[in-house]
């Protein structure tokens, strides 16, 4: 009798145990280990050797390079999120019609999400080549886009925005299909033009999906790495040294795992605070 | 308010389906015009063409003497109430009603005045801060109507606005709509499939079927003088009874015979039947349930085999057969009858209609 009761109480946990095991191994353990490492100076193998407490953090907070990484990352996130969401929204609105051939456009706009970031970065590298790149050929410039500190970050950001626009297009297309067509007809009869319909009906109707997409895009943008690694390696002159790349460099080139872990923790805190702030603002701007 | 004219208006969809054919109608100022017909007859399509939500395939739409075919809905100065209410879900009731005025850049104070006035008329002033999801069906419909009336447009278009309401609320709202029509002096074009709504609300009714107008007349004319069997059967509840009968001459008088029953027609009917060469031919006899009575003369008597008895309180409906023809009779509540039994009922021969069996046209149409 007791055995049956125990089995019934324990069986839900047995079902979720494999997932918990994987989460523990690949998420919870690395997470807590990172916090642990951030309190130590480490050796080249990444083993914690000397407890410094907040020493790594105070070093970072007095490092110009770290603040540069933060600044560059913020600029990068702003460009990526705004451009990718705008691109996704515009293409979703354009494809929210029915006429012959619309599926070709829908497929084309969604395609970027199927492309690996490193592959796209390699193609962009060729396109942005100062001598043979198609960008310079079309625009008639002779700019070394990736090697010029003025343009490198924008190039990486635009590439990332384009890569993210595909999934945003899908999100917004789904959101648009949930808006009742009848309210647009009513708005037409009421006298609203296309702009008024877009700003007064479409955007409010999309607000739940806009919020979700914004949160996801910000988190993703903060964690961008592949494009930077392939295109610019954090240069020229740290102009594209995003915080994730800085973490990677500190850990695997400079063997300063403690400092890298501290940067990871700071990044986690920034993203968490941002996400919490956004959820607070959700009640004001999102209409369910 | 405005007068509208539809001249030879046709609508053919991309798949080749013809929804409306040669629609000709003049709608007078301040008229409460009803478009009624079965589902798929083209009434909503016609309304949407007037609103500008559907392109007119051919023909002309005139509003106050201006051709409107190529005018966008925004510029037609019409208001529309939709079957599904079409309330903006993210806006409050106040904002829903104010929307059409805001997009036209009306001054804030005037918007407030008009919205509150309309809310008072519809008794929804206490709901202005609520959102649509917090409203009942009847409240939503009032808000939809309120959103239409704040604009004071040339005409109001209503596409089955009461069809999503329960029966009791529908009756209430019908009265409200009649009041609004009287108060506003508005031109209203109203689409419904419910002939009771049509008969109670409209000053003129247009009966449609398969994309064409069958008859356009006031409710009394449609009821008393339908142009064909379809209109006769569509108008009136319960529906008119149709009995196939033979037109014969017996004892120097014209009569109609069916299943061992014989009914002598009056002089006018007789003349029409003779003029139309119907003697010896079959026609449909149309008689409304309310024109079958409990008493009468012997030559008006019919024997009804009762199959179903519906007691409605103020009356009873007897469903059964006379011979092989299904018939419904509306009788006084104290009329004695049993299911399975036979009763005598008497036809009011001054109220019968006769329809050609091939064309289904009303032989007695005036």
Structure description:
The complex is a heterodimer of chains A (288) and B (366). Chain A has 12 helices and 2 strands, in the order αββααααααααααα. With 288 residues, chain A is an all-alpha fold. Chain A has a two-stranded antiparallel sheet. In chain A, α1 crosses α12, α2 packs across α12 and α3 runs parallel beside α7. With 366 residues, chain B is of the alpha+beta class. In chain B, the strands form 4 sheets. A 6-stranded mixed sheet of chain B has the order 6-7-8-3-9-10, sandwiched between helices. Chain B is elongated and about 80 Å long. The two termini of chain B are 33 Å apart. Classes of the chains: A mainly alpha (288), B alpha+beta (366). The interface between A and B is medium-sized, with 19 and 25 residues.
Which keywords apply here?
heterodimer; A: 288 residues; mainly alpha; two-stranded antiparallel sheet; 2 strands; 73% helix; B: 366 residues; alpha+beta; five-stranded antiparallel sheet; 25% helix
């Amino acid at each position: 009798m007791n055995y049956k009761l125990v089995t019934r109480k324990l069986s839900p946990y047995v079902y979720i145990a494999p997932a918990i095991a994987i989460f523990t191994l690949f998420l919870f353990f690395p997470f807590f280990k990172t916090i642990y490492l951030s309190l130590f100076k480490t050796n080249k193998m990444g083993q914690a050797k000397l407890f410094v407490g907040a020493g790594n953090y105070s070093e970072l907070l007095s490092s110009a390079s770290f603040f540069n990484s933060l600044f560059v990352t913020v600029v990068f996130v702003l460009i990526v999120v705004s451009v990718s969401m705008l691109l996704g929204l515009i293409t979703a609105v354009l494809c929210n019609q029915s006429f012959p051939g619309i599926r070709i456009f829908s497929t084309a706009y969604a395609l970027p999400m199927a492309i690996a970031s490193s592959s796209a970065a390699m193609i962009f590298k060729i396109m942005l080549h100062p001598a043979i790149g198609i960008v310079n050929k079309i625009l008639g410039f002779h700019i070394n886009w990736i090697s010029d500190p003025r343009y490198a970050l924008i190039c990486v950001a635009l590439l990332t925005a384009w890569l993210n626009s595909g999934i945003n297009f899908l999100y917004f297309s789904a959101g648009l299909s949930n808006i009742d067509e009848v309210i647009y007809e009513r708005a037409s009869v009421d006298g609203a033009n296309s702009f008024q319909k877009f700003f007064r009906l479409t955007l409010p109707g999309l607000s739940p999906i806009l919020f979700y997409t914004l949160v996801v895009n910000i988190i993703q943008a903060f964690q961008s790495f592949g494009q930077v690694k392939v295109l610019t390696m954090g240069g020229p002159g740290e102009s594209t040294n995003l915080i994730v790349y800085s973490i990677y460099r500190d850990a695997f080139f400079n063997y300063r795992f403690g400092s890298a872990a501290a940067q990871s923790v700071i990044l986690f805190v920034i993203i968490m605070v941002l996400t919490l702030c956004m959820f607070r603002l959700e009640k004001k701007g999102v209409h369910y | 308010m405005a007068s509208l004219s539809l001249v030879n208006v046709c609508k053919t969809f991309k798949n080749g389906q013809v929804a409306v054919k040669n629609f000709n109608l003049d709608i007078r100022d301040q008229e409460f015009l009803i478009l009624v017909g079965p589902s798929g007859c083209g009434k909503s399509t016609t309304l949407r063409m007037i609103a500008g939500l559907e392109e007119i395939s051919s023909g002309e739409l005139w509003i106050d003497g201006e051709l409107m075919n190529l005018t966008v809905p925004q510029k037609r100065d019409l208001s529309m109430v939709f079957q599904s209410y079409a309330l903006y879900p993210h806006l409050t009731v106040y904002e829903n009603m104010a929307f059409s005025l805001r997009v036209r850049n009306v001054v804030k104070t005037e918007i407030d005045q008009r919205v509150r006035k309309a809310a008072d008329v519809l008794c929804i002033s206490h709901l202005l801060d609520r959102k649509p999801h917090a409203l009942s069906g009847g409240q939503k419909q009032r808000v939809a109507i309120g959103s239409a009336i704040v604009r004071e447009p040339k005409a109001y278009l209503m596409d089955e606005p009461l069809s999503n309401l329960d029966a009791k609320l529908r009756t209430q709202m019908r009265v409200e709509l009649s009041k609004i029509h009287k108060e506003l002096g508005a031109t209203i074009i109203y689409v419904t499939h419910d002939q009771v709504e049509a008969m109670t609300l409209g000053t003129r009714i247009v009966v449609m079927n398969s994309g064409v107008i069958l008859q356009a007349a006031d409710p009394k004319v449609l009821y008393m003088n339908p142009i064909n069997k379809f209109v006769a059967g569509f108008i009136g509840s319960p529906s008119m009874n149709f009995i196939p009968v033979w037109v014969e001459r017996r004892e120097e008088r014209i009569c109609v015979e069916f299943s061992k029953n014989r009914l002598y027609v009056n002089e006018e009917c007789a003349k029409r039947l003779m003029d139309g060469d119907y003697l010896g031919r079959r026609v449909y006899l149309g008689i409304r349930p309310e024109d079958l009575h409990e008493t009468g003369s012997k030559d008006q008597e019919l024997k009804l085999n009762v199959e179903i008895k519906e007691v409605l309180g103020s009356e009873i409906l007897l469903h059964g057969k006379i011979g092989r023809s299904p018939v419904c009779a509306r009788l006084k509540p104290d009329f004695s009858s049993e299911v399975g039994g036979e009763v005598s009922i008497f036809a009011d021969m001054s109220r019968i209609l006769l329809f050609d069996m091939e064309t289904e046209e009303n032989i007695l149409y005036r």
